[in-house]
Amino acid sequence: MSPVTNARVLFNEIPQGYPDPNKTVVYDDSQTIDLDTVALDGGVLVKVLVLSIDPYMRGKMRHPDVKSYSPPFIVGEPISNFAVGLVIRSENPNFKVGDHVSTFAPFQEYVVYKDAAYLRVLENKENLPWSAYVGVAGMPGRTAYHAWKEYSSAKKGEIVFVTAGAGPVGSAVIQIAKAEGLKVIASAGSEEKVAFLKSIGADVAFNYKTANTSEILSEAGPIDIYWDNVGGETLEAALANANHGARFIECGMISAYNSTPYFIKNLINIVGRELKIFGFIVSTLASKYDEAFYKEFPQRIANGEIKYLEDAKQGLKETGQAIYEVQKGLNKGKSVIVVASE
Amino acid sequence: MSPVTNARVLFNEIPQGYPDPNKTVVYDDSQTIDLDTVALDGGVLVKVLVLSIDPYMRGKMRHPDVKSYSPPFIVGEPISNFAVGLVIRSENPNFKVGDHVSTFAPFQEYVVYKDAAYLRVLENKENLPWSAYVGVAGMPGRTAYHAWKEYSSAKKGEIVFVTAGAGPVGSAVIQIAKAEGLKVIASAGSEEKVAFLKSIGADVAFNYKTANTSEILSEAGPIDIYWDNVGGETLEAALANANHGARFIECGMISAYNSTPYFIKNLINIVGRELKIFGFIVSTLASKYDEAFYKEFPQRIANGEIKYLEDAKQGLKETGQAIYEVQKGLNKGKSVIVVASE
């Protein structure tokens, strides 16, 4: 077979403020790959099926001299993220043609993994859509599950406030908390999302763009657990309405990713209310909780106990737009790029 | 015996910004007490020897409608704080005349405790100065000891940054950390205090008024533990120079007690560096650690392992000035009011 196009999405320029759908990343179809003859050197050739778009990717769009927990994207090179792929050739006995794998992949159609350490064969006995493995059954679901186990110290009857509740992490947290008997207050940025929050069990759900977060927490709180995906003014409202001894799980602060941070004026509450605040990265908790997660969570998704929304775009060309929408909160559920069918 | 004056210090007005040495509290000698005949109703009569002046008292100088962990001072009533006193009459079998007690007392010369629950007899086998029991052997020492045990997760060779290092809490933390084999960076607000920090073992000591905190932490860090007494710009510097997985022990934020809080711009580091931040009030940890503290710490003070500075003022009339100096950081060591000799 002659070479085929191996389209890619390249990091084009470091954004100031929000990413630009047309400039931050660019689609490139200049490369080809010969799927039959490309050297594997003992590795595997994977056809990428689904790529994930996540909020944290904004942090990788930085000058490479700035250190952070996750390596920077390099201008001129493909961006990368969590993915599901199909093994189409293999020289590694742990992977066979036809296996579906979850992996971390460059944004391109075909990837040769000479080192298969990133790859995990997905058995998918539950028959979930493959895209779920970059969402509620993948990194975002693990984020919710692992940190809740590690940091929530949740007790039945306590009150948790979950931000970005319609996203893949937030919606998983809401449903985990409800299953454990907590009262859930959840926020999102549209009426449509608020309806979804209610449908998955949130006791109090509101649109933070039209309601006053602090007033709602004041009425429905005080809160024992705060799941923070947004930071800024919402974190200030959570500090103002935290119960004594509340736990703050700091998953992200998207309000500060694309603009100047908000001036939080009540950090002193950390002392007087004896708050415990936990920043975390899911990979740190993986060895402790991954096994339990994969044993338990896909089954709960399959039987309908854990619901989720997905916002799928077709084709690598949509990547720039999807990245922009996730940073703006315009996506309606977990954002994924469907690169190919099988 | 005829009645004697029972001088008091009354809360006079809620301060805006820093307390005013002459207006926030006022000295009052209008009351008398008959020490021989005052009714005890089964309680004890205590002559107050020493009263403590602590930073946290600023939080009690608020409108009574504002809730906080510690009850507000009431305008027209005596202020109150930790104290050491001498039992001069007793109808309670657990206390005898001549006992020294640590207690929580109104700022006045004589106090009748009908309920003796606040009183603890001080055996003082170590023969410490009685004032130490409102300082390094009392609440501030317990603050350092208890929270270090509970939250530091300290390991030999790690680096801790201690603010307000010359104060009773900070100086205890420095010496606890040194004894456990940590490298200590400590700050204070004068050259004299910096000399004290060095004398008690701080590896790096600096005057935060003349040096750049972030630069010093950048050179001597990154820090694994941050003991925060000040908040604000210093907390921002600690966030900027925190090691991955660092623990922040939030003991106080005096920079925000008397003025608008500083705008901290790098809270996002909490997430990316997986920081753990612990606010606490020492009373919450008392039942867990008091026994070990009283068994161990006075002995370490007596044998010179734990050193401290004391800034003693003579007489209740000095209370307003002492309160002001503590909020301004002008005190040179633990601030105490010596009310009477025995």
From TrEMBL, chains A, B:
Can you give the residue ranges of the Enoyl reductase (ER) domain? 28-337
Q: Name one GO molecular function term.
A: oxidoreductase activity, acting on the CH-CH group of donors, NAD or NADP as acceptor
Q: Which UniProt keywords apply?
A: Oxidoreductase
Task: Extract the Pfam families matched here.
Answer: ADH_N_2, ADH_zinc_N
Entries under InterPro entries matching the protein:
ADH-like_C, ADH_N_2, ER, GroES-like_sf, MDR_fam, NAD(P)-bd_dom_sf
Q: Does the keyword Transferase apply?
A: no
**Protein name in UniProt:** Enoyl reductase (ER) domain-containing protein
Biological source species: Cerrena zonata
Taxonomic lineage is: Eukaryota, Fungi, Dikarya, Basidiomycota, Agaricomycotina
